[in-house]
Amino acid sequence: MKKHLAFFLAMLMLLGLLCGCKGATGKNTSAGMKDNSITVGIAQDLDNSLDPYKMTAAGTREVMFNIFEGLVKPDKDGNFVCAVASDYSVSSDGLVYTFILRSGVVFHNGAKVTAEDVMYSFKTCASTSVTAALVEALSAVDAYEVTATQFSIVLKEPNPDFLSYVCNVSIVPKDYHDQDTAPVGTGPFKFQSRRVLDNFVIVRNDDYYGQKAHLSKVTYRILEDNTALFTALNSGSLDLVAHLTIDQTKNLTNGYRVAEGTMNLVQAIYLNHDVKPFDDVRVRQALCYAVDVDAMLKLTSGGHGTAVGSSMYPAFGKYFDESLANAYPHDIAKAKQLLAEAGYPNGFSFTIKVPSNYQPHVDCATVLVEQLKAAGIDAKIQLVDWSTWLSDVYKGRNFEATITGFDSSTLNASGMLARWETGNGKNMINYSNADYDAAYRAARATADDAQQTQYYKQCLAILSQDAANVYLQDLVDFVATHPKLKGYEFYPLYVMDMSLLYWDK
Predict the structure, then answer these.
(1) Which fold does the domain 266-474 belong to in CATH?
(2) pLDDT at residue number 12
(3) pLDDT bracket for residue 410 (50, 70, 90)
(4) What is the CATH T-level fold of the domain 68-166, as seen in this structure?
(5) What angle do the packed helices 115-128 and 132-139 form, to 10 degrees?
(6) Is pLDDT at 430 greater than 70 in this prediction?
(7) The CATH number fitting domain 28-47+187-262+477-503, selected from 3.40.190.10, 3.30.413.10, 3.50.50.60, 3.30.2350.10
(8) Domains 28-47+187-262+477-503 and 68-166 in one fold
(9) CB-CB contact of 225 with 143 (8 Å)
């Protein structure tokens, strides 16, 4: 490994000499700074469809956050701020949400935003969105009341989380039909072009109603090979790359700044419950005891990252149950005992399919394979490209186990927990537990915040007790930026706000 790294760094130095590039530590400035644009490296291509209601991958939402907006949207502190709406109010009984439509808002195609567009957006989202929790929330709408300047939503029953769902209904033009390939929203950036598996380009929306973006253009370069991504970053041809490993940050030699945050997701070994031996809770619990999360964190990220213990990450505050991270203390003897009880006294073998473009998942898988050996479990890693992972693992459910991370598209617990309901379309592990279903339904049915929180925590406890998955961590997020690029902020959601970035000249 050290020899490969030395050769790699030597080649980078040679490349710099041949190209005459001095990088961030030299006198030359990036091309992006000269024309007020930046180039961002990302490790996966966007979804095939760019329609806001059809997007599935967190990486796609991370980018499209800059193009689409709702009536309200989240800020960097997790607060809901007005967007397409200029103001809103909620009735005392929690049933009526009234939004005053902001005047002068135009779509990226030049059309003015009307109340009819807002109505179209809500009805289309309710019927086509791939986010089950969002569809469920909108199905509880009793009526929409519309005037030229006001949009009201009447609920059948109170829902304390409803504003977070409103936030996720992207407002789109009703008479536009090319959202799949040429998305149109109201955000601070607008779509310019896309080359599949190559790049995605957005440009500043000069007609934006609010604070306009500082940058004139953002080009996302898609580099699914981690070595190529790091090479491009270290050579200075990229101005920003997020989701780096600690080793990558340590090997940076170009003077780029590194900021540390969290990814706001739950990384786990996700297990297919329809495949033996993972249909046996004792086997799943044995895996939990065999894994040493603290040791994994030290080996893969120098101790950075936060152990989670269930399907919730710390940014959710009141829902996160820190105690669940200690539900399965590292205990090889206990793991072997459970395996013997389940009929596997000599252990078993299985394959972990890992998306090759996410180095943090690959690094964790490498460590976990070694840890599992101590319990007699022979795990093999199969690296697959992102498109294969999406089609075969996530959608096709053709896997035994995988390591990935799930985030929430909404600032509420349902965004994390809806997928584990029996029969949910996103329930890729085929999990089914009647007690979980009942607790989740109870949480969704109550308007009492304290009671709802209690039910959601019950859901988390059931996932832990049932060892639904081998829960690992909320990954640390290392973001490298050109030293003169300022304004990057971490959000409590898996997004990157390009409108805040600017060159410090």
Answers:
(1) Dipeptide-binding Protein; domain 3 (3.10.105)
(2) 38
(3) confident
(4) Dipeptide-binding Protein; domain 1 (3.90.76)
(5) 120
(6) yes
(7) 3.40.190.10
(8) no
(9) no
pLDDT recorded at residue 493: 85
The whole-angstrom separation of Cα 87 and Cα 78 is 18
Instruction: Tell me the domain boundaries of the chain.
Output: 28-47+187-262+477-503, 68-166, 266-474
Give CA angle at 396 (393, 402), nearest 5°: 15
Q: Give DSSP secondary structure letters for 365-402.
A: HHHHHHHHHTTT-EEEEEEE-HHHIIIIIIIT---SEE
**What is the CA 497 to chain-centroid distance, rounded?**
14
Bond from prior residue into 277 cis (ω within 30 degrees of 0) = yes
Question: How far apart are the C-alpha atoms of 316 and 326, rounded to whole Å?
Answer: 19
Residue 102 near residue 201, CB atoms below 8 Å: no
Strands 470-474 and 37-42: unpaired
Q: pLDDT tens for residues 274-328?
A: 999 999 999 999 999 999 999 999 999 999 999 999 999 998 888 999 999 999 9
Count of alpha carbons within 13 angstroms of residue 291, beta-carbon side? 30
The count of other CB atoms within 10 Å of the CB of residue 314 is 16
In this predicted structure, what is the pLDDT of residue 13?
39
Tens-place pLDDT, residues 92-135 = 999 999 999 999 999 999 999 999 999 999 999 999 998 888 89
Average pLDDT over residues 386-414: 92
pLDDT in tens, 452-484: 999 999 999 999 999 999 999 999 999 999 999
Q: Which tokens sit at 66?
A: 């800059």
Q: How many angstroms separate the CA atoms of 135 and 61, rounded?
A: 17
Structure tokens at 464: 């832990």
CA gap 311, 466 in Å, rounded: 12
Distances (CA, A) of 200 to 37, 194, 307, 314, 390: 13, 4, 34, 31, 19
Place of tokens 């089609």: 391
